[in-house]
Specification:
With 257 residues, the protein is mainly alpha-helical. It contains ten helices and four strands, in the order H-H-H-E-E-H-H-E-H-E-H-H-H-H.
Length: 257
């Protein structure tokens, strides 16, 4: 969703007002212990990174302000753990007069993205302010990406899978397996896989893969796209087979209807 559109999203359109965690999730004793340790690590390392990267924060904020009018930090309402609405921080990458539609619906999104915004998006530096969310406890370094309140169908699927028992993350399993090239249905499937394997091992794998993906700018797509056409760019082992995708989509459709 474009920054202006997301800013006007009403919480009454989100799942918080009518959220039911449809699926009961039972974590093992080891997973519960890791959840506590993970929160301590999140708070510790986010605090350290905020201090170390403060010069970069200052320079980036200045560049955003000088490149176009508007605030340097964009505050976006998203859905967090247990369906609670949270404010997620990002460096602003679009002009303040961008159309109030989803970024994927823009025919020519490049003309709405600021000069510095393109660089920030390609390098994922626009996500750095989310370290504040991690420090506050709204987010984690690793976890399912937080959705905007208007993405109702994905919310339903996440609730059916118990995804909202997890704290959302700056990066996740879907982000290292295609990012913008992955359909919403497959993102939920990756989220479910992460929930099932929740622990240090999968977090470490996602963390190491994220570094490579960011450096290569993998999976970043702006504006209208056809997932089927772009899926070939992903490695075959990174996405489920067509038969698996079709079965999953049919199952989701039956549950929603």
């Amino acid at each position: 969703m474009s920054e202006n559109a997301a800013q006007k999203a009403n919480c009454k359109d989100g799942p918080q007002c009518n959220l039911t965690l449809l699926k009961s999730v039972s974590f093992t004793k080891g997973q519960r212990a890791y959840s506590v340790v993970k929160r301590v690590m999140d708070a510790t390392f986010s605090g350290i990174l905020l201090a170390v990267l403060s010069p970069i924060f200052g320079l980036t904020a200045l560049a955003v302000k000088l490149s176009s009018r508007g605030p340097a930090i964009f505050c976006q309402q998203r859905v967090g753990q247990y369906g609670n609405l949270i404010k997620v921080y990002k460096f602003r990458t679009m002009y303040v007069d961008a159309p109030n539609v989803a970024t994927a619906d823009l025919n020519c999104p490049k003309r709405f993205i600021t000069p510095i915004g393109r660089f920030l998006r390609d390098t994922s530096l626009d996500e750095l302010p989310q370290l504040l969310n991690v420090l506050k406890g709204d987010m984690s370094f690793i976890g399912p990406r937080p959705l905007i309140p208007l993405e109702k169908e994905i919310h339903i699927r996440r609730m059916e899978k118990g995804i909202y028992y997890l704290r959302p993350g700056m990066t996740g399993l879907a982000q290292v397996n295609g990012r913008d090239l992955v359909s919403p249905e497959l993102k939920v499937e990756y989220d479910t896989e992460y929930l099932r394997k929740f622990g240090f091992k999968i977090d470490w794998k996602i963390f190491t893969h994220t570094i490579g993906k960011v450096l290569k700018h993998d999976g970043i797509v702006e504006g209208n796209m056809q997932l089927a056409e772009n899926a070939s760019e992903l490695k075959a082992e990174e996405i489920p087979s067509n038969k698996q995708q079709q079965s999953y989509r049919q199952a989701c459709k039956m549950k929603i209807n």
